[in-house]
Amino acid sequence: ETLYVELGERTYPIVIGDGVMRQVAALLQDAGISPASRLFVISDENVAPRYLQPLKQALVTAGYRVADCVIPPGEQSKSLAVYEQVMTRAIEAGLDRKSAILALGGGVVGDLAGFAAATYMRGIAFVQVPTTLLAHDSSVGGKVGINHPLGKNLIGAFHQPRLVLYDTAALRTLPEREVAAGFAEVIKHGLIADESFVDWLEEHAERLWQLDAEWVGRAIRRGCAIKAAIVSADETEQGQRALLNLGHTFGHAFEALCEYAVLNHGEAISIGMCLAAKVAERIGFAQAGVFARTERLLRLFRLPTAWPNGLEPEAVLDVMKRDKKAVGGKLALVLPRAIGQVELVKDVDEQEILTAMKEEA
Ligand code: ADP
Ligand code: ZN
Description:
By secondary structure, the chain is α/β, with parallel strands linked by helices. The protein has two domains: 2-173, Rossmann fold, CATH 3.40.50; 184-360, Dehydroquinate synthase-like, alpha domain (Up-down Bundle), CATH 1.20.1090. Helix content is 45%, strand content 19%. It is built from 14 helices and eleven strands. It has helices at residues 24-30, 48-61, 80-92, 107-119, 135-138, 176-193, 195-203, 205-209, 213-232, 248-257, 265-282, 290-300, 313-321, 350-360; strands at residues 2-7, 10-17, 38-44, 65-71, 100-105, 125-130, 143-148, 151-158, 163-167, 333-338, 341-345. The strands form three sheets. A seven-stranded mixed sheet has the order 1-2-9-6-5-3-4, sandwiched between helices. A two-stranded antiparallel ribbon has the order 7-8. The site of adenosine-5'-diphosphate (ADP) has 21 residues, from helix 4 and helix 6. Adenosine-5'-diphosphate is lined by residues 44, 46-47, 73-74, 105-109, 131-132, 134-135, 170-171, 173-174, 178, 181, 265.
């Protein structure tokens, strides 16, 4: 099954299903990437041993020339040093402006490979083959980039993929913690824009958690569709797109203060979405019950909702004020009005945020 994402004058397909990786060659051709193009696959050390050979085999059989580069797993690889190594390999492999870079992996590989594709000879074709659920978030919207020692995602670009090939079979080798983390972004899309999707997630949590192909496929498709609708209305983040940051101002602060080790991204934004609901209820912005339902839903997917051990609310608030989204030191927070409805609230009273955090800590 295929979802088409329309952005500006460009439309690209997100192909979702069990075993779709086997169709990679035909799908590349459909996307205008013919065997005359050299391909460069970027993957990580956990994903490559499982999926790189079959992918390359399918491509080579169809006549493509394929080189690859396998990077260490984890956020540390979204660095200038690894970016340089990848670029060196790409140049050595003889990529030219007609070549394409394929990302085979999760969000880390996707962000790095996308940035490499955006900057190699001022931009070449990019194809995503996500192997985590979380990658559903990075596969729509075109944000690619790497980290700087002074902050996450500070170096980047907008570069849309030509094709996203989402093989749900690959999700079954994910560690449980990564599965839960991936659902955090899926849940986020429901909480932002679609109460009926939240009902559906609540109803089918168990099946989804088992990674039943058909149900996970539906969840990915719906999550991507919601994100695509928001992003296409606002490709460069002037307004609406900011709503996608639900839970992220808190979450990024947790991640930074834990030095990206104790909590992964999905876990951090899970706790962040709970806090956003808590603040929203405190200041009378949200209906009563939004916090309780948010927390319950996240728990159904085995996500953490409690305050991270050992963090000081004051320290979290300080980091939040330095977030990319903060303008002139004032905090703007995405807060729920109801389940399935959020708004960007400027000038949220810091004291209210601090009190909400202290209640949780
Ligand atoms: P995310 O997609 O969650 O942002 P990563 O790219 O860091 O994050 O992937 C999370 C972890 O899961 C990494 O250690 C990665 O190597 C591993 N991983 C990714 N996809 C798979 C998979 N399909 N099977 C097993 N491990 C995987
Ligand atoms: Zn996120």
